[in-house]
Design a protein that fits this description.
- The protein is α+β, with helices and mostly antiparallel strands.
- The chain folds into three domains: 90 residues, 2-Layer Sandwich (TATA-Binding Protein); 186 residues, Vaccinia Virus protein VP39 (Rossmann fold), CATH 3.40.50; 78 residues, no CATH class.
- 24% of the residues lie in helices and 30% in strands.
- The strands form two sheets. Strands 1, 2, 3, 4, 5, 6, 14, 15, 16, 17 and 18 form an eleven-stranded antiparallel sheet that branches.
- Strand 7, helix 3 and strand 8 form a beta-alpha-beta unit.
- Bound molecules: S-adenosylmethionine (SAM).
- The site of S-adenosylmethionine (SAM) has 21 residues, from helix 5 and helix 8.
């Protein structure tokens, strides 16, 4: 990831340069430790840069939570900041790449996009953790009337598949680089034909991280149309039995099991198990009836919150655990006397949301964008509001 190593500098001496900079909007100092954040506005996006001082060299780098998807934007911003602040660069990796960034493809969708986009195709199917994408690409080619939404948390795999979509001239795949367990909440009810979960990571030692769970199953049944199917394929005996138990807990579904069934396409992952003659299980869950429409009445405003002197001292330092969610004010940064920037983790225990909250004299907002509209995030948001006000 792009960064600069610069000769250590006196950050209090850069205040006037920040005021003159076209892209730096504010500077926030950590209440504990020597690191700082710079608010930056560049190329139509807002994000943060971190300044981490060290005796030998100061590191200026991206911030994980607010990082823009276009790496070149980040590189340009780092370059501009180094010029505006007249930093002495010792080493850097911010050369602009000319190759077309895959994450700016029209087939790459952000989770927030699902709040207002509609499918260009009549039918929708979802694939969870598509890996190399062989199955996803095969399905999309075979079913041109269906939009395939592929979810993958591993960014290089998402980029590879975006390249393949362009090369194979497909127009019916959307790639989403996001956790599938949260994603389904973004879809309306009764819209999906199939949800494929092929060879999910078994997580035998950390079962709470598994994709298949009672809540994932509930959401799958909600988004599947009557007759639609959730299709699990796994080589793990434990995962097979665990899923079966989970699937049988839902009323009005049909569950079908197959063993060592050959599909039209074999992923690299599957091919390895086949060579080792491992058993492969398919479990299909058919949705028995249509679900109620989903009413999304979620608002992440902080209407009543504003900065008051000493607020930072009143906030809990440790994570607070509630029924089904948590809130943790992880780190606090101050800008002048009247702005507080809080790095906050919250939401569900196994799929936490990470956001900054910017509290000013007359306003408060998530910096730079609100959380994903899930019920658990909304519960956590209401608690955060209570703690801040
Ligand atoms: C064992 S690989 C299987 C890949 C592919 N389905 C196949 O059959 O070859 C599991 C994939 O799921 C992805 N993954 C794991 N958890 C995920 C989640 N919660 N949401 C989306 N993708 C996930 C991993 O990054 C990995 O690429």
């Amino acid at each position: 990831m792009p960064h600069l190593k610069v000769t250590p500098f006196d950050s209090s001496a850069i205040e006037h340069k920040i005021l003159q900079s076209d892209i730096i909007t504010f500077r926030a100092k950590a209440l504990k430790g020597g690191d700082e954040l710079l608010g930056v506005e560049h190329g139509g996006e807002e994000f943060l840069l971190q300044i981490k001082p060290d005796e030998k060299a100061t590191l200026v780098k991206y911030d994980k939570v607010t990082r823009p998807l276009k790496v070149n934007l980040l590189k340009e911003a780092l370059d501009q900041v180094s010029k505006d602040l007249e930093l002495e660069i010792e080493s850097s990796n911010i050369a602009i790449s000319n190759s077309k960034p895959t994450l700016s493809s029209e087939y790459f969708k952000k989770i927030e996009d699902f709040e207002h986009i509609t499918s260009p195709k009549e039918k929708i199917s979802v694939e969870v953790g598509f890996g190399s994408g062989r199955h996803l690409l095969h399905q999309a080619k075979k079913n041109p009337d269906t939009l395939f939404i592929g979810l993958e948390i591993h960014t290089p795999s998402a980029q590879q598949v975006l390249k393949q979509i362009e090369l194979q001239e497909l127009d019916n795949i959307w790639v989403v680089n996001y956790d599938a367990r949260l994603f389904l909440e973004m879809l309306p009810s009764n819209v999906c034909e199939q949800i494929f979960v092929h060879f999910p990571v078994p997580w035998d030692k950390k079962p709470h991280r598994r994709v298949i769970s009672p809540s994932f199953l509930d959401e799958s049944i909600r988004v599947l149309r009557k007759g639609g199917r959730l299709e699990l394929r796994t080589d793990s005996d434990k995962y097979f039995w665990y899923s079966l138990e989970t699937f049988f807990s839902v009323p009005k579904t049909e569950v079908e099991i197959r063993k060592n069934e050959a599909l039209e396409v074999t992923s690299k992952y599957e091919a390895r198990w086949r060579r080792q003659e491992k058993d492969i299980y398919d479990v299909y869950v058919k949705c028995g009836e249509n679900s109620e429409p989903k009413v999304l009445n979620i608002d992440f405003n902080f209407n009543i919150v504003k900065y008051r002197k000493g607020l930072e001292e009143t906030l809990p330092k440790k994570a607070l655990v509630f029924d089904g969610y948590f809130v943790h004010f992880e780190r606090m940064y101050k800008t002048g006397n009247e702005k507080l920037l809080i790095k906050c983790a919250f939401g569900s225990f196994d799929r936490p949301e990470h956001k900054y909250i910017l509290i000013e004299e007359n306003s408060c907002r998530y910096f730079v964008s609100p959380p994903v509209k899930t019920t658990v995030n909304y519960e956590a948001h209401q608690k955060i509001m209570e703690l801040l006000s």
